[in-house]
Amino acid sequence: MAADGAGKLRRQLEAPRFDPALYVKQLSQQSDGDRDLQEHRHRIQSLADETAQNLKKNVYKNYRQFIETAREISYLEGEMYQLSHILTEQKGIMDGLTQLLLAADREQHLQPGAAASAASSSSSPSPPPDASLLPPRQAEEHRQRTLTPLLQKVEGCQELLQAPGRSLVYNGDLLECDPESGAQLRRVHAFLLSDCLLVAAWLPGRRGAGALRYRFDAVYQLDSFAVVNVKDAGPMRDMFKVLMFPDTRVFQAENAKVKKEWLEILDQTKKDKALSERRELEKAEALRLAAAQEAAEEEQQRRRPLPSNPFEEEAEEEPRDLTLDWIQELPEDLDVCIAQRDFEGAVDLLDKLSAYLTGADGQPGVRQLRGRVEQRVRRLTDVLVYELSPGRSLRGGPRATRRAVSQLIRLGQSTKACELFLKNRAAAVHTAIRQLRIEGATLLYIHKLCHIFFTGLLDTAREFQMDFAGDSGCYSAFVVWSRSATRLFVDAFSKQVFDSKESLATTAECVEVAKEHCSKLSEIGLDLTFTLQALLVKDIKAALHSYKGIIMEATKHRNSEEMWRRMNLMTPEALTKLKEEMKGSGITNFDQYTGDDCWVNLSYTIVAFTKQLMAFLEEGLKLYFPELHMVLLESLQEIILVAVQHVDYSLRCEQDPEKKVFIRDNVSFLYETVLPVVERRFEEGVGTPAKQLQDLRNGSRIIRVNPESTNSFV
After folding, report:
1. What is the pLDDT of residues 213-222, one digit of tens each?
2. What is the CA radius of gyration of the chain?
3. What is the pLDDT of residues 372-382, one digit of tens each?
4. Enclosing H/E stretch for 161
5. CA 98 → CA 102, 103, 105, 414, 681, distances in Å?
6. pLDDT value of position 207
7. Alpha-helix residue ranges (DSSP H) falling in 561-597
8. How far is CA 477 from the centre of its chain?
9. Which of 122, 114, 169 minimizes the C-alpha distance to 139?
């Protein structure tokens, strides 16, 4: 009945046209008093709690899907960013190739005395043609033609137009505004020249066709000011600033499109000027170096001794034909190969050119050709370096880097290829370990961690051997990298195994798994076992000391409550299980210490101590390596000494003859059965006898029993 009422209430509240005010009004009219309202409030609250619980369950149910979706979105975002970056680079390269091809075509078809193109309009971008592509006479005519509108419209600027090479790039009307308030001050006309910005004030009343419409106001060199975009805010729209120390001028364009054109063309013109100046400097430097080289060659030729036989002609090198089509088109072909990511084709062209020009370095024109090709080599190297950068996608594994690495090696940059390859794989290892989900048991996580790390290390080593087979000098770098990668693995391993305070059995199993995976590296001749042990030795020592302390404290606690009574296991199954545990620990004669039914003729303290001691020994042997020899041996000595001192003290202090006989039986089990098994098992696991354990057993109090007396003699 209550369920039906709750369902009816739920359907009523979930109705599409539910009106809370009307519902409360009807409820108030139908209720008999405060009690009914309280009960209804309780039902609504129960329904709300149930809804909240269902919502929480749904969230928990889909939590993993939420996390996986968010992670995939993050991956996709990174991939899309990289794809966008690659497409942007491709677009820039293709635009550059288009400009180069157009310029070459124009240079080929342009004849001296041809009619020049019409001047650009006054309010649209008109980038001037490259002066290097025009004969000097036509270049000067073009410059005069582009500056004619400026001479006809602005007064007071004749002196500015005398600079050689200066041309008009862009011009248009603007409104100058107050930098503080944004109020419009006056109308101006700006002329962007190839090396400066000229601002002219508007002259009212000058409407004739030949009248001067503007008056010179100011001129700014392109490298003396900065252009800053001004965000639109209220009436202050379509503005940009021109910053010249210590002044600031604000201009307003006609609309957003004109403003964008001004900003883009100003920025491009500043870049073009900087590029032109840099090219002039490079050209001057190249001329200076060429002159110095020629002077050095002449000096060397002058100082060269004359041949002993004046009739013997010097062997001359056969000149190389640099007018071949494939040599002339080589720089452009390299650009195309780089743009199309045909790295192998680009390196093949470079190898072909290098073989063709062997021994022809002194020939005229070879140095210039090599200089042009060297620029493409640097660009190709940069692209290959980017392909190996850790920021690229790491999902392809070591094989994804083979293409870029092999081409860098062919370019004679094996060291850089090795460094970038190892950095790429280090980032991949770090990412794989960081993305490994920590869930479930520690041993399961360690299995996954070891599989991911050592499998990746093995694949990396095989790929390294394949890529750098002919360069043995890089192998030392790989060994150093392997050690650093192992250190990264051990950090993640220790954080999960040792910092979480796992039991010694779990710790031993995890270390054994790591050793087993590490030994697989010997397939390729790489042994990192010593490195792994050296990195783990500190944490394993701490784990052995910690577990030793736990055993000693537990033994002391049991000793304090010792009653020296036989042990009753209550059921035959429990007795059988204890026998199997003792047999598994190496104590094969445990049957002689069992009695009738389910009794064991030993103390519970001695049996529990034996089980803990043998378990500690087995786990310690799993963790063993030479650096831990003394730690394990001293820990065993300290644990055994606690039990030996306890039975010795109990035997000397006990007055009850029956209990004294029972204590002697336990002493006999400890000295004649347990300790020899410990010594034998230690020697089997380590390979050398434990002399310290033998000295401990022989040097302790040896109990001798007089058959006619119950007194003990020491």
Report:
1. 788 888 888 8
2. 45
3. 788 888 888 88
4. none
5. 6, 9, 11, 34, 80
6. 59
7. 572-584
8. 20
9. 114
The pLDDT value recorded for residue 457 is 86
Q: Are strands 168-177 and 184-193 parallel, antiparallel or unpaired?
A: antiparallel
Residue 505 has pLDDT above 60, yes or no: yes
pLDDT reported for residue 251: 92
Smallest CA-to-CA distance from 590 within 578, 598, 599 is with 578
Distance of CA 252 to the CA centre of its chain: 46
Token pair of 134 as six digits: 């025009």
Q: Which two tokens stand for residue 6?
A: 């709750």
The C-alpha atoms of residue 217 and residue 198 are separated, in whole angstroms, by 8
Q: Using the 8-state DSSP alphabet, how is residue 215 labeled?
A: E
Task: Give 389-422 as a 3 state SS string.
Answer: CCCCCCCCCHHHHHHHHHHHHHCCCHHHHHHHHH
What φ, ψ does residue 240 adopt, rounded to 5°? -150, 155
The encoded tokens of residue 429 equal 């290892």
Tokens representing residue 287 in the block: 């001329």
**Is-above-0.85 flag for pTM?**
no
Q: Check: CB of residue 564 under 8 Å from CB of residue 662.
A: yes
The total number of residues shown for the chain amounts to 714
Query: For residues 40 and 45, what is the distance between their CA atoms, to the nearest angstrom?
Result: 9
What's the pLDDT band for 475 if we cut at 50, 70, 90?
Answer: confident
User: Helix, strand, coil % (nearest 5) of the chain?
Assistant: 65, 10, 25
What CA–CA distance (Å, rounded) separates 117 from 106? 12
Return d(Cα 449, Cα 439) in angstroms, integer.
12
- In contact, 634 and 566? CB cutoff 8 Å: no
In one-letter notation, the amino acid at residue 166 is R
Whether 125 has a pLDDT exceeding 50, the answer reads: no
Burial of 190 (0-12, 13-18, 19+ CB in 10 A): buried
Cβ contacts of 498 within 8 Å, gap of 6 or more: 507, 539, 542, 543
Report residue 544 as tokens.
Answer: 């052995």
Q: Which residue is associated with the tokens 């429990």?
A: 574
Alpha-carbon distance of 272 to 260, in angstroms, equals: 18
The Cα-based distances of 335 to 316, 368, 398, 457 in angstroms read 35, 17, 28, 37
Q: How far apart are CA 603 and CA 173, in angstroms?
A: 108
pLDDT, tens digit, 9 for 90 and up, residues 361-416? 666 677 777 777 888 888 888 888 888 877 665 666 677 777 788 888 888 888 88
What is the spatial distance between Cα 144 and Cα 166, in angstroms, rounded to a whole number? 9
Indicate the angle between helix axes 629-653 and 691-699, nearest 10 degrees. Answer: 10
